[in-house]
Amino acid sequence: MIEDGGRSGLLDRHRGRAALLSRRSFLAGAGAGLGALGLAGCATDDLLRAEAAKAYGPMPDEKFPIPAVDIAKLDPKFFRRTVAYDSKEAVGTIVVDPKNYYVYRVEGDGTATRYGANVGRDGFRWNGDAYVGRKSEWATWTPPKEMIQRQPEAAQYAKGMPGGLDNPLGARTLHLYQDGKYTLYTIYANSDPDTIGKGITSGCVGLLSQDMIHLYARTPVKTKVVVLGA
């Protein structure tokens, strides 16, 4: 859960740190080759990692250059890839599977693009239908009042933390709405591979920055988002 880019609970993972709050503190398209390998089902682990190294390489042309992902820290099952996926949802629909730590983009031909994700921790998960009400790049992050009450060190950002590599929202954010109202939940960018495949947030969903940029570019406002039960 977040408010205008706030991610309640991401600081919970590192509550004791009083130093400058980095992304790790808050948190405690190159997919074609991986997609083809995923459908073929015959690629070796070494070949998958070679392709992943390309997909998750540095992005120096970003406003704040994004470093390469240390794929040695990422289970290959969480690499971006194209997978068989039967769905009645329209092309472009985003489906979040928190139980298995995946986000899918429905491609409409019996396949989907699958991304590894982090999700809400126990007691903070939610499910239901929503839609992308707005999108933001390198957004300002503002901690909600509830978070500041739990973690006073967040008060230094009560007026907002500017976009950047240390900002919890990351390079791209999809803000989720229901019935015209902001849910306080987002799908956001995260550069820490150690968080993928874990429940660490207050209900928000994080993708690696390279994956989030890939999904963001293909996701217009009003896109349907389905969050499955855990």
Automatic annotation (TrEMBL):
Signal sequence coordinates: none
Domain L,D-TPase catalytic, first and last residues per copy: 92-228
CC per GO annotation: extracellular region
GO molecular function terms listed in the Swiss-Prot or TrEMBL record: glycosyltransferase activity; peptidoglycan L,D-transpeptidase activity
Pathway: Cell wall biogenesis; peptidoglycan biosynthesis
InterPro entries: LD-transpeptidase, LD_TPept_cat_dom, TAT_signal, TAT_signal_bac_arc, Transpep_catalytic_dom
The keyword Hydrolase belongs to this UniProt entry's keyword annotation: yes
Pfam name, any one: YkuD
One GO-annotated biological process of the protein: peptidoglycan-protein cross-linking
Alphabetical UniProt keywords: Cell shape, Cell wall biogenesis/degradation, Glycosyltransferase, Hydrolase, Peptidoglycan synthesis, Transferase
Similarity comment: Belongs to the YkuD family.
Cross-referenced NCBIfam families: TAT_signal_seq
Name recorded for this polypeptide: L,D-transpeptidase
Species of provenance: Lichenibacterium minor
